[in-house]
Write a structure and sequence with these properties.
Helix content: under 10%
Number of helices: 1
CATH topology: OB fold (Dihydrolipoamide Acetyltransferase, E2P)
Order of helices and strands: EEEEHEE
Strand content: over 45%
Largest sheet: 5 strands, mixed, barrel
Number of strands: 6
CATH superfamily: Nucleic acid-binding proteins
CATH class: Mainly Beta
Length: about 120
């Protein structure tokens, strides 16, 4: 019935943290990259605590082509995608890892910027 042994699917709603930029990585096609900020409030020891998370977002150029002009810092965005870990070596030749969200579908929910400069 299933051809895979697992599911890698992510849904996020958050604000674009920086102006999206087009990157050309050596091992991939051109992608639009930017951080997405999500926040949630949880109860901890009876107090409300806000959790803020920054996600590294990559939208392949062919997926972003239809709505690139809509993507600006501060916009509220809904995305669907998958989690991918990329490894690379820094200047001291130490292997590092970066967790990224590869987007397959997105929709701008609010085109009014609400974030201030970080």
């Amino acid at each position: 019935m299933f051809t895979n042994s697992g599911i890698n699917k992510v849904f996020l709603v958050g604000h674009i943290g920086k102006e999206p930029r087009l990157h050309n990585f050596t091992d991939q096609k051109e992608v639009l990259c930017f951080p997405l900020v999500t926040n949630e409030t949880i109860k901890k020891n009876g107090d409300n605590v806000e959790l803020i998370e920054w996600h590294n977002i990559k939208i392949p150029k062919e997926v972003a082509a239809s709505g690139t002009e809509l993507l600006q810092k501060g916009h509220l965005l809904y995305i669907e995608g998958k989690i991918q870990t990329r490894s690379f070596y820094d200047e001291q030749q130490i292997k590092k890892y970066k967790l990224e969200i590869i987007v397959v579908k997105f929709q701008v929910l609010n085109a009014v910027p609400v974030l201030q400069e970080v």
